[in-house]
Every structure is written in C-alpha cells, then in structure tokens.
Write a structure and sequence with these properties.
mainly alpha
C-alpha cells in the first residue's frame, strides 16, 4: 500500500513525499523490488545521485531481469563518461565534446535565467540545480522516464534536476529557449513545492520564453486560430486534462499554447503579483481554482473573459486573409485549374494560395510561383512556421540567381524565427560572399543557438570577427572550431597564431608549430614563427639592458 501511495505521489512530481512512502514500504519488506527501484528513481529525480545510482545498481545485480534497473545501470555506465561543469549553483553534465564546445555558454545562459527569473518571481534558491544534456535520445528517455523510446520531449524538469536532449540529439530546436523554459520550471516548482497543475507550470514557462526573446515560445497560427474559433478551447478549470489524454500531438501543442495564453491574460488583467500569490497559495496546499478565484476572479468569470480574450487574439491574426477551406466536392485540390478558379473568386484564400504555390514549385515554374508566395506573405507577414512562404520564396530567388532578394526574404524570416537553421546558414554564406561581416556574426549566433556543433559556423564567425577587429571573439571561435575537426586545421592554427602573437606569444608559437607539423612547407607559417621568435628575443634583450 505504501509503495502504491508513493508511486501516485511521484506521478504528481511530489518525489520527496513519494520517496518517504517507498522507505516505509521497505521497512515492511527490505527486498520489495518495485519499492527499491521506485525509490532509486525518486532519489535520482531529487538530485540525490549517489544513493540513487547505488540502489539502482543493487537492484540490477539482484534482479537482472528488472527492466528499469537494467536500463538505469546501463545509463550510469554511459554517464560516467560525461564531463561535469560546476559554477554558481549549477552542476552541468554533458558529452565531453559538447561540454568543450559550448558548455560554458550553457552555464552563462542558466546563470542569467537564475538571476532574472528568481528575482521576478521572488525565489531565493539555495540548493544547487543539476542539468544533464544527452546526445543520445535513448539515454535521455531512460534518465527521464526509466524506459527508452519516449519521443516528443525536448526537456523535463523535476524540481532541482533538469534533463534534456542536447542539440545533437533533438530535432531542430533552439537549445537556449529549451534551457530557459526548463529553468522557469525550477522556479515555479520550488515556489509551489511541486504542487501545481501542469497547465500553469507549462503556461508560465512558455510565457517566459517569449518575454526573454520574442522569437521564442509559441504564437498564434492558423491551426490554433481554427481550434479557438471552432470551440476547441479548453475551459481553464479543465486545462490540466488537455495534457493527460490529448487526441493528437497537435492538441498537446495547443495545450501548451493555450496555457501560455491564460498566463498572459492573467498577468495582463491582474498583474504579475497575482501569479506570485497564486503560486504561494499552491505551495501552502491550496487548490488551483480556489487560488485563481482568490487572486484573480471567480472561475466562471475568468473562463468567460479568457474565451473572449482568446477569440479576439485569433480573429486579429491576419484579418485580411480568407481562411475558408472548400471541400473536395467543391474544389479538387489536385486540379490546378480548379484551384485557380477558386482563387478568382477568393483572391485572399490562404488555403488556395498555398496550394497554388506548391503546384508551381513542383512544376519548377519559379517566376510564376512568386505571385502566390508574395501574396501569402503580405496577407500574413508574421507566419514563420516550418512551411512558411519566406523559405519557399527564398528558394525561388535562389533558383533564379536573385541573391539580393533571397537575402532580404531570409532576413525577414530570421528576425521572426528562433530555429530557422537553414535560413541562418544561407544568410551566413551570402554575407561572407558579400563581406557583410556584421550579418555573418548576427546569423552565426542565431545558428549556434540551434546547433552549436557545426564547424563552418565557427569558421565564418571567426573570419568576420577578424575583419571587424574583434580579436577576442575570433580567438574564441577558432578555438571552438579546432575541437570539431575542421577541414583545414592548418589555416585555423595559423590565424590563431597571428591573433595571439602579442597577447600570448607562447600560445601563438604552439599554434604555429601545430600548423607546420601538418604543413611543413607552409611559408607564411615559417615567417610568422620567425616573427614570434624575434619578438621574444627582442623582449629578452630589452630586459637584459
């Protein structure tokens, strides 16, 4: 019975209380395997790693067929090779290569999140926070859920422990936004002692993403608009249920968005102080609807006002666009003429314009495809989802060798999207060719926030930083580049030698010698080495005088 109670508590993220009940169960039967492995998982999620791993390994030794124990024991062996970085209350564990390339930047971001979010919500965080990034998504799944093959999660926060897929493992996503989102969970879970509904926790985290960076988080899109206006908005009082059994993955994503919209509505109407008061009451054991009524308004009134707020937001999205979609009996979507006829009567049909653009692109009618794509952008300029018209129009311009127009279109997309990695990459290429060095750095930083393991990005940023006279940034980029097996390490070492010649002659000499070891006939390298040696001898002679 105690084991079952503990399991139910842990399912609600109340791991401390859950572990207490597992210990009670083990007082009755010290060898009760389900309680032992559940306690191991609870301890690991509480950040009590040494006793947690020890217990998991003991269960695996005692019962080789226990799936969770086997998975955790295997994971422990894998994580023993991780690099651990510690600073200012954070313990960051990750793949050794990734730690060397961008681990310091992850720590900087986490420290910023701690400073800003703890102050904003009034949390004094005294205990360390553990963050683990997994290059292997199966390791992430086992660490997080105890079993492999769990998809759809970028990161999870248990309170003082954050687990996340690293940029190497996850689909294109902004890893900085993911860490900011998960640390916000640290704040709200601490304030409520892990006693809060999921919708509020997720809603605050998604809301705070957009407060940190307007391109982060979620925004209204055609799918969400349709769901709101067709009555699929979940009442606030039932919003937690939207996370439990969503009929489709899209409904789960909508639950995240709606939750953030509720938080935005509450803060806009009642102020941030109301959210802080609600979190405090939840921590004292209050029920969410009671706390909402106390610090905002009665639930029925809130739901009515929020529905009006959400409908207004949906109706305001691209108001000039025609969102009606005809049935297949009305328009055959595979017939270009039928689509054109529909457009003749519905010139602002978002559905028909997208369909027509796709048909023209498929038949490689590049010039003709411009018209519907440009019309889509003019009707809905804020649309930056994966199938956005900016990306398609840029591809058309590239096919037609219209580089300036391609750059302008991609630039607009880059300013709206946090994970348009292909756009950032292409903008870096164009800017390098045009020697627009500021744009190289700007888009390079955007790209590295999505995938920080591309050697070319560091090469281009290093070159741009050199041209802009930012030696420190150039050195940093080239050093990270060397960790990623660049195509031309000789050139990278040589450039580091030049940049460090006066600041750090010993390091400069080492880099030039590395270049000459790979390219003994590299004349510029020999000249630079002689100059460094002559500088050193001159300084020694000056000191002797």
């Amino acid at each position: 019975v105690d084991h079952l109670i503990g399991v139910k508590l842990s399912q609600k993220y109340r791991f401390s209380e859950g572990s207490t009940f597992q210990r009670r169960a083990l007082q009755f039967d010290p060898n009760h395997v389900p309680a032992r492995i559940q306690l191991a998982e609870d301890l690991l999620r509480l950040g009590q790693e040494e006793p947690g791993w020890t217990l998991a390994n003991q269960v695996a030794d005692a019962d080789p067929y226990n799936v969770k124990a086997y998975n955790l024991s295997t994971l422990h062996d894998s994580m023993s090779k991780f690099k651990t970085l510690e600073a200012d209350g954070f313990v960051l564990r990750m793949n050794e290569l990734e730690a060397a390339v961008y681990g310091d930047q992850a720590l900087v971001l986490l420290k910023q999140a701690r400073s800003e979010l703890c102050e904003k919500y009034g949390l004094q965080l005294d205990s360390p926070v553990t963050v683990e990034l997994f290059a292997n998504p199966q390791d992430f799944a086992v660490r997080t859920f105890g079993i492999p093959d769990v998809d759809g999660y970028l990161g999870v926060c248990f309170g003082s422990v954050i687990t996340a897929n690293s940029p190497k493992a996850q689909r294109p996503a902004n890893w900085q936004a993911v860490l900011w989102h998960e640390f916000c969970h640290v704040v709200t879970l601490h304030l409520t002692r892990n006693k809060m509904p999921r919708w509020l926790s997720e809603g605050i985290s998604v809301y705070e993403e957009s407060q940190r960076n307007p391109t982060w988080g979620q925004r209204m899109n055609p799918r969400y608009r349709r769901m709101i206006l067709t009555g699929e908005l979940t009442p606030i009082g039932k919003l937690s249920g939207a996370f439990l059994n969503p009929p489709t993955p899209r409904h789960l994503q909508f639950a995240y968005y709606e939750s953030s919209l509720v938080v935005e509505f509450l803060i806009g109407r009642f102020g941030l102080q109301s959210i802080r008061a609600i979190l405090a009451d939840l921590g004292d054991g209050a029920e969410i609807n009671t706390a909402l009524s106390k610090h905002a308004a009665p639930l029925a009134q809130l739901e009515e006002q929020f529905e009006a707020f959400a409908r207004k937001r949906a109706e305001a999205m691209a108001p000039q666009a025609d969102w009606d979609e005809p049935s297949e009996e009305q328009v055959n979507p595979a017939d270009p003429q039928a689509v054109a006829d529909w457009l003749a009567g519905h010139p602002n049909s978002f559905w028909a314009l997208r369909l027509q653009a796709q048909m023209l692109l498929k038949s490689e009618q590049w010039e003709q495809a411009k018209k519907p794509l440009e019309r889509l952008i003019s009707l809905y300029p804020a649309y930056a989802e994966e199938d956005n018209a900016y990306q398609l129009l840029a591809a058309v311009h590239r096919k037609l060798d219209e580089t300036e127009q391609e750059r302008d279109v991609l630039g607009k997309l880059a300013r709206m999207s946090s994970d348009a990695a292909d756009a950032y990459l292409r903008l870096m290429e164009i800017a390098t060719e045009q020697q627009a060095w500021e744009q190289v750095v700007e888009n390079g930083d955007r790209y590295l926030a999505v995938y920080p393991l591309l050697s070319n990005a560091y090469w281009w940023i290093g070159r741009a930083a050199e041209e802009l006279g930012r030696s420190e940034r150039a050195v940093e980029s080239y050093r990270r580049l060397l960790l990623l097996d660049p195509a031309d390490p000789v050139e990278v070492h040589y450039r580091l030698g030049r940049l460090l010649r006066h600041e750090d002659p010993d390091a400069a000499r080492r880099h030039v010698l590395e270049a000459l070891a790979d390219a003994p006939r590299f004349r510029d390298g020999h000249r630079l080495l002689l100059e460094i040696v002559n500088d050193s001898e001159g300084e020694n002679q000056g000191g002797a005088q």
